[in-house]
Amino acid sequence: MAFYRPASYQYPLAIALLLALLALPPTLTALGQEFYIGFATRVLILALAASSLNLVLGFGGMFSLGHAAFFGAGAYAAAICMSSGISDALLAFPLAMAVAGLLALGVGAISLRTRGVYFIMITLAFAQMAYYLFVSARSWGGDDGLPLVGRMTLGGFSLAGDSALFYAALGCLALVMLFLGRLADARFGRVIQAIRENETRMEALGYPVFRYRLICFALGGALAGLAGALLANLTGLASPNLLQWTQSGTLLVMVIIGGVGYLYGGVVGAVVLLVLEESLVGVTEHWHIALGLLLLGIVLFAPKGVAALFGKRHD
Question: In whole angstroms, what is the distance from residue 39 CA to residue 271 CA?
Answer without folding.
Answer: 11
